[in-house]
Structure prediction request, 124 residues.
Amino acid sequence: QVHLVESGGGLVQAGGSLRLSCAASGRPLRRYTMGWFRQAPGAEREFVAAIWSGGSTTFADSVKGRFTISRDNAKNTVFLQMNSLKPEDTAVYYCAAGLLPGDSYSYTVAYEHWGQGTQVTVSS
Prediction:
């Protein structure tokens, strides 16, 4: 079992930055594809970014060029660096781990393990 704990959320003004962390315990993350998702009030949980075990990354169009995802397998931690934040980035952000088949990285059902989420609020 993989236990994931997110941190780093908070309140920031538009244009600011935050760095989210996702610390894992229970199993090493190095074999897992790691994803970040977010969910705004009344909305579906949506894909933000993913990083494969080999280090390849992909991003949702809405955050491309502003967010980066990275992993430190030695520390069993994944990061989401968020720059140029916008009010529409306000959501609860979740990290997830999975041994994903094919190109399923943007689907919540493809991930087996989830954190509890961290709130990000961007004020205008």
About this structure: DSSP finds no helices and eleven strands in the chain. The mean pLDDT is 96.
